[in-house]
Amino acid sequence: MKDEAAERIDWSALWASGDLARFCFVSLGILLHATNETMVATIMPAMVGDLSGVELVGWSLAIYELGAIVAGAAAGRLVSYVSLRTNMMSAALLYAAGAAICASAPTMPAFLGGRLVEGLGGGALVSLAFVSVERLFPPRIWPQLFGIMSAVWGVAAFSGPLLGAVLAEALSWRWAFGAFACGGLLMAAAVLAVLRGPAATRRRSEIVPPPFPFTVLSCLAASVVLIAYAGVTISPWRSTLLLALGIGGLAAFFLLDGLRPASRLFPSRLFDWRSPVGSGMTMIAALSVATCSFGVYGPLLLTSLHGIPLLTTGYIIAAESISWSILSILVASAPPAREKPIVLLGVMMIASGVAGFAWTIPAGNLPLILACALLQGGGFGIAWPFVTRIIVAAARPEESTIASSAVPTMQRIGYAVGAAVSGIIANAGGFSQGLSRETAATVAAWLFASFIPLAMLGVVAAWFLMRPPRRDAVNDTAEVNPGS
């Protein structure tokens, strides 16, 4: 009993010492990044009406996620050369600059440039928030702090769409980005006052970080850009060639990553379905790509096709996030024996939501659209925590850290690729000629149905995840780790 009492956290003491306030501050980086990420969907109709460039809508998420992936990989290494305080202040300023560019953008290409800068700053802020926990707080409270971070992300995912819809309808979509520019500047100024002490102000020169994967990430960026560019102007030969080059580049990205063990982003045997790592990562990749289209084009189609107000679309996307958070909490205490069946149930819910959007969005049936959003969000909520635990537990011992960070990285790559592919389908459906009710009807008929096969691939991968690992896969792991 004494040991249990000793391990209890005295939150009032943490607040009095300033540690809890400091943690709340570094978590603001997560709030800024995640809120901005989810806000763009609901302001997209107003933004396209002002800037035009509907054929580039898919780029808005793809380019943001690319910046976040690159910055997230870099930030953890830079703190070995530059102090945590300097890194966080620079990231906040970069984020504010990107938001300011978006707010003042005269054209869609200029807006996309701002989104790239925003993604770099936001991705770095998220990565540095996790680094801050390790640097600034005692290990005994790390689990609780990471739990609070998850709650912050849930609040951001809920508030982002509503914030964007309210500001776009009451003022202008530009004010939404202006608010985030001010938030980034305020955070940069507050860094100097909040992050003090040796842990925040000195660099760890004694730690040599792994080499930065420039070649690998350049290959990923080029691949996503090629896929997205294939849909800007639809031409059978040109689009097919660019799409093939982009897919080949993705294959080269994963191959190159596997050949660089010192700086790899993913565990070995990445897509080997004989292992839970391979089937689990395949499931994550397939479902991330398959579900991206609603967040990118859903509000734009509902507004253009059925005249649904922006605030209503914001509530629908927010409901998806609420469903994710609530169901994740409800199943969190499930015993290990039920984890895999829960994952399969969640994946089937996600696939049902994707298939449902293919009918409900063209029809404009709001109650059923809301039901599909709740299915999709709730499916992620009950599946994602367990699939992450299964993947990490099945990874080789020396790759467990890589495996845990690989899950959100794969999800971001899936979102970037999904946004790019959604752009191809939408532009092929008529958006390359401009936004109208007729083109919106054609896009709505094809966009969501095109991703049903990928959703079914996710279901099949989840089914393989439920099976016990094959003996040869287990033996391979044992040979690499004879001491395990």
Q: From the helix content, strand content and strand pairing, which structural class follows?
A: mainly alpha
N-end to C-end Cα span: 33 Å
Indicate how many domains the architecture comprises: 2
- Please tally the helical runs, counting DSSP H or I stretches of 4 or more residues: 20
Please name the CATH architecture of the largest domain. Up-down Bundle
How many E-type strands? 0
Rg value: 22 Å
Helix content: over 70%
> Overall mean pLDDT score?
77
| CATH hierarchy, class of the largest domain | Mainly Alpha
What is the succession of H and E elements?
A: HHHHHHHHHHHHHHHHHHHH
**Main β-sheet: number of strands, strand sense, barrel status?**
none
The H-level CATH homologous superfamily of the largest domain, spelled out, is MFS general substrate transporter like domains
Instruction: Output the CATH topology of the largest domain.
Output: Growth Hormone, Chain: A
